[in-house]
Every structure is written in C-alpha cells, then in structure tokens.
Backbone:
C-alpha cells in the first residue's frame, strides 16, 4: 500500500504542473488584461468616442490614450509582461530569478562608468558603479571594485543623442514553490494575506456542510432502504427531489425573504459571516458561539441542500443492491440476526460509493460557492476568485487555482484511503 500511495503522490506532480501551465497560459493570452483595464479606465475617464467601442478603447498606440510610453513600459515591467510567457511561468513557480527593486537611470553619451545610489546600508548611502562594456552590456561593481552579487543592470534602449536608458535591479528566487503566491493587483497585498481570511470562511462552511450532509443523508438513506416502498420512502423522496431541484442560491434568497427580516419573519440576520467587528469584540465566548450559529444557519442550509438528494439516494440504492446479494442471503440462511446482517455485512459494502466521492465533495465544497456567498454577503473563497477573474487579478486567480488543485489531488488520495478502510477486498499494491 505504501508503494501505491507514493506512486500516487508522484503522479500529483505532473498533474499539478499541467493544470497550472494550462490556466496560466490562458490567463496571460486572454485579451483585456490589467494594462488594458487601466487604459480603458483612462479613456472612459477622459471621454471615449461613442463609436469607438471596446476595441478602440484598448488601442494602446492610439491617440486617445493619455498614458505616455514611459508609464506603459513601467506597467509592463510591474505586471511582468515585458518577458515571454515561459519566463513568467517559471518566475511564478520560483525557479527563475525575479527582478525586484528596479531603479531607472540614464547613462550619458560616452560615459563609461556611472555612479548609482541604490539605497542605504549600515546607515550610509549604498552606491555602486555601473560600467559600460562593449556599448551593449552593463556590469555592476561595488565601490571597493568587487563585482556586485546583489545588483544587476540592463540597457533598456539607446537614445538618438547617444545616451542609454538603463535599469538596475536585484534578483531573487521567489514563487509558489517557496510559498510566495505574489502580490494582488487589486488589494496591493500579498496573495496569502488576501486569501487566508476568506479561505477560513469557506473552510468553515464547507467542513460544516460536509459533516451535516453525512450525518443526515447516510441515516436517511439507510432508513429509506429498509422501508423501501413505504409512505415514508415516497414522501421523503418527493421532498428530497424538490429540494434538489432548487439551486442553493435561490433557496438562500427565499430563506432570507421569509426568515431574514423581509416580508415575514425576522429570525436571522440578512447576511454576513458574523456580527460587525465592533460588536463581535464586545461579546463573551458563549455569545460569540451563539452569534456565529445565528449567522450560519441559513447559509449552511443553502450550502448543503444540493448534496442531500444525491447522497441520500446513493446510500439507499447502494444498501438495496447489497441486501439483494448472495452473501446477504447466505448470512440469513446461517441464522444470523437481521441487524447483524445489515449493519455488519451489507452496511460496510454500501459505504463504498460514499467513500469514493469524499475527495470530489471536499474539493467542490471547500472551494466555495460564489452565488451563495454573494446572496448572504459572505466574503468567502469562491466570491474572491470570481471577483479576481473579473478584475484580471492574476496572482489571486492563480493562488486560488493552486489551493483548489491541491485540495482535489489530496482529496483523491483521501478517497482511496476511505475506500480501502470500508472495503477489505481492496488492497493497493
């Protein structure tokens, strides 16, 4: 079994990289990126020609833009679009050096050594000498004449007057493999800081929803199977499939209207994960628990309603199928009690389909639901990802992708472990 799971873990590596390469390439090649968004906002602010349309609005070289070429070049450098796609991907991974702390400067015509101040070190100004070599290469030396390991320089362009526009910068290996998911274009914060509180919200609702689904659906499916064809079976099936036919976000809206202070009752808050911070901080630990439960009841119902029908019917049909197997009839023929046959023999095999779907459910639920989070005004993981896609916030979008892919891959392994624990016939070799 150990060999099997080691092999599965090794297979996760190409799967992960394949998924990230595909999505990264699509994002980088898709039109309407962050620079085009800025250009569009500038032109909209300056009054766009009504006949120009969206295509004209992103014509960077057009006369309608107020963004000078120097600013455009700086934007391309900031977003990393001044490099080919493969370099951007390798930089994002952290296996290609990332350029940081850029300093622009101009080397005059005929000037062979340029003194550049790059910051402070040990309380003193840190200056380096940039030497021009063969008119097309720059080498950075410290003031003591030693080749600088910290700073590097490149020529941006040669000007008509003989001067050269250049940039000096530092390099570092920093990417997702080192735990750096980048910096959000929208929030101007590290992606991990943006994702952490929102992931906690979706994780809380997701795990609670999974727990309640299994807690309710498995016993309900067992009872329906043992009372197959009864009034209870028929009535519960009707109720389950009516609930299944209603989208979770639509049910959430109905619940808010009825119970959230709309037209009927005022039992629950209109939304939010918990009370506002100024109220939350004044509550005692017991009051915080009650406040959290008060806010989560309606979202949890909307979050889990869709999985009720699938899991309940799956459990019922699986148990009915196993009750009709020869090994069950043999157990009855040996004189075993009904409860022992059902709970010790048939029940364990009936859990196999449920166990095999744990990984999929885990990935889908924890990833969050934009519509439900939007309906209840919950700042969760799914809502964050959707808004990041609309805003072309690539670091946040890719950070979301990394988390979801890892959850799905780990979830598949969890499914295999759960499958092996309930089915003694399965041995991974």
Residues:
């Amino acid at each position: 079994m150990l060999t099997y799971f080691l092999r599965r873990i090794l297979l996760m590596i190409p799967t992960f990289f394949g998924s990230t390469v595909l999505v990264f390439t699509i994002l980088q090649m898709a039109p309407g990126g962050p620079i085009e968004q800025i250009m569009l906002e500038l032109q909209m602010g300056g009054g766009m020609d009504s006949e120009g349309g969206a295509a004209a609005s992103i014509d960077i070289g057009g006369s309608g833009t107020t963004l000078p070429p120097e600013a455009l070049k700086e934007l391309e450098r900031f977003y990393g679009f001044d490099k080919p796609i493969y370099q951007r991907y390798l930089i994002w991974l952290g296996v290609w050096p990332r350029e940081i702390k850029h300093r622009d400067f101009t080397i005059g015509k005929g000037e062979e050594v340029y003194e550049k101040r790059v910051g402070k070190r040990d309380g003193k100004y840190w200056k380096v000498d940039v030497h021009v070599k063969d008119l097309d290469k720059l080498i950075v030396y410290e003031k003591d004449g030693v080749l600088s390991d910290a700073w590097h320089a490149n020529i941006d362009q040669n000007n008509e007057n003989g001067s050269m526009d250049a940039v000096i910068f530092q390099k570092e290996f920093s990417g997702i493999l080192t735990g750096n998911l980048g910096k959000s274009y929208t929030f101007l914060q590290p992606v991990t800081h943006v994702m952490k509180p929102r992931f906690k919200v979706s994780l809380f609702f997701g795990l609670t929803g999974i727990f309640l689904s299994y807690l309710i659906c498995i016993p309900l499916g067992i009872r329906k199977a043992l009372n197959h064809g009864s009034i209870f079976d028929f009535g519960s099936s009707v109720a389950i499939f009516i609930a299944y036919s209603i989208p979770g976000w639509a049910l959430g809206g109905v619940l808010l209207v009825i119970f959230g202070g709309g037209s009927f009752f005022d039992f629950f808050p209109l939304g939010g994960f918990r009370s506002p911070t100024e109220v939350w901080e004044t509550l005692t630990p017991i009051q915080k628990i009650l406040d959290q439960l008060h806010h989560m009841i309606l979202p949890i119902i909307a979050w889990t309603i869709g999985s009720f029908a699938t899991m309940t019917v799956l459990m019922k049909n699986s148990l009915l199928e196993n009750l009709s197997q020869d090994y069950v009839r043999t157990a009855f023929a040996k004189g075993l009690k009904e409860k022992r046959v059902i709970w010790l023999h048939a029940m364990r095999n009936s859990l196999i389909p449920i166990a095999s779907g744990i990984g999929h459910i885990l990935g889908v639920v924890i990833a969050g639901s934009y519509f439900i989070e939007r309906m209840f005004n919950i700042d969760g993981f799914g809502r964050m990802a959707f808004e990041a896609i609309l805003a072309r916030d690539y670091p946040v979008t890719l950070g979301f992708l990394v988390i979801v892919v890892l959850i799905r891959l780990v979830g598949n392994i969890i499914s295999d472990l759960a499958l092996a624990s309930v089915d003694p016939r399965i041995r991974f070799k």
Notes: The two ends are 5 Å apart (CA to CA). The chain is about 60% helix and 10% strand.
